[in-house]
Design goal:
Two copies of one chain form a homodimer. Chain A is an alpha+beta fold. Chain A contains two helices and three strands. The longest helix of chain A is centred in the C-terminal third of the chain and has 16 residues. The termini of chain A are close together. At the A-B interface, strand 1, helix 1, strand 2 and helix 2 of A face strand 1, helix 1, strand 2 and helix 2 of B.
Chain lengths: ~80, ~80
């Protein structure tokens, strides 16, 4: 049993309207000195796979096929256990 | 200048329909042995603050007031720089 943590973030240069909305809301609440807010996704999953390399390959395939839009998003996979 | 990374995840026991949808879609694509999928948010921001403690307190206040719904969500703050 392994736990995989996947971070999916927009590539640099891709407009991030959610991040912009957060930045504006923070400014409206009086938080100054905040810059460059970017929102991404964070996905945790458990795998029955026990081999680290096979687990990484599997999660990589999941990212390519479903979790990330690789045209505009980057992803990072961290494995544990 | 510091960079803050915030992970916002649903508390245990809170139903996660997005995670469920991902789990079903993965099963439909033929990925077996995947369990307990949870989706959270990942927010990166830059702060002009240079004092670590003050930066943490500021981001903590942002989470309490805007970024997280603390009734159903947990958050974790990582600072860098």
């Amino acid at each position: 049993m392994m736990r995989a943590r996947v971070h999916i973030t927009l590539k640099h240069g891709v407009l991030d309207p959610q991040g912009k909305a957060i930045a504006n809301a923070l400014a409206g609440l009086g938080f100054a000195g905040v810059d460059d807010v970017r929102q991404g996704k964070y996905i945790e999953l458990k795998l029955e796979e026990t081999d680290r390399e096979r687990a990484r390959a599997k999660v990589d395939a999941m990212c390519q096929k479903l979790l990330a839009n690789t045209v505009i998003e980057n992803y990072r996979i961290d494995l544990e256990g």
